[in-house]
Amino acid sequence: MENINSELVKSGIIMLHPIRLKILRILEEKGEMYIEPIAEGTGVDRRLISFHLGVLQNNGFLKSAFKVVEEPHSKGKAGRFFNLTPKYEETKSKLSDFLKR
After folding, report:
1. Mean pLDDT calculated for residue range 7-24
2. Could you give all domains of the chain from N- to C-terminal order, each with its CATH number?
3. pTM, two decimal places
């Protein structure tokens, strides 16, 4: 079997954790989101989602920025909004290509 890049293996392990995979799929489907709707969409506790968002961001799959939450009950509070980075799409494509071999 052809050698696979160790960085791709590491990235795959990070991305394919079941909770992180749910997070990535939700962000891919719905776009920029903050932690509350991500937690609701995954059905996972907010604190655990926070941990996994940190792992994804620290490894370059997500970027974040603070913005005002535009919801009636938010009273203008700020939230950290998360977006996928190009690294996510690149890694997803490379993993897909490798698995098709």
Report:
1. 94
2. 6-100 (1.10.10.10)
3. 0.87
